[in-house]
Amino acid sequence: MRTTVEAIFWDSSGTAGAVPTTVYDRDRLRAGNVVDGPAIIEQFDSTTIVGPGQRAVVDRVGHLVISTGAAREDQQTGGDPR
């Protein structure tokens, strides 16, 4: 699933710098695969950024569903994501 790891510049939580970031080939991802950020998902016609603290899940039809840390916590606890 993973293709390479690159040092990518991220500015999150007030701390900027190069962070090892996994780069994925979108064609190799399958339903149920989970990609935790920071990550980059490349495909022939677009690039998807999964930032630090985010998670991408490939749904049953192949869509990437990206959630933030807060949204994931709400899903796990049954809280209202609004």
Key features of this structure:
N-methylhydantoinase A/oxoprolinase/acetone carboxylase beta subunit; 52% strand; 82 residues; mainly beta; 7 strands
- The total of beta strands comes to 7
Question: Strand sequence of the main sheet, in spatial order?
Answer: 1-2-4-5
Question: Could you list the spans in which at least 5 consecutive residues all have pLDDT below 50?
Answer: none
Structural class category: mainly beta
Give the overall silhouette.
globular
How many domain regions? 1
Strand content: over 45%
Roughly what percent helix?
10-25%
The helix/strand series, from N terminus to C terminus, equals EEEEEEEH
Query: What is the helix tally?
Result: 1
Gyration radius over CA: 13 Å
Termini separation (Å)?
Answer: 33 Å
Largest sheet: 4 strands, mixed
Q: What does the average pLDDT come to?
A: 85
Summary?
This protein has 82 residues and is mainly beta. It has one helix at 69-77, and strands at 2-12, 15-25, 34-36, 39-43, 46-50, 55-58, 64-67. The protein has one domain.
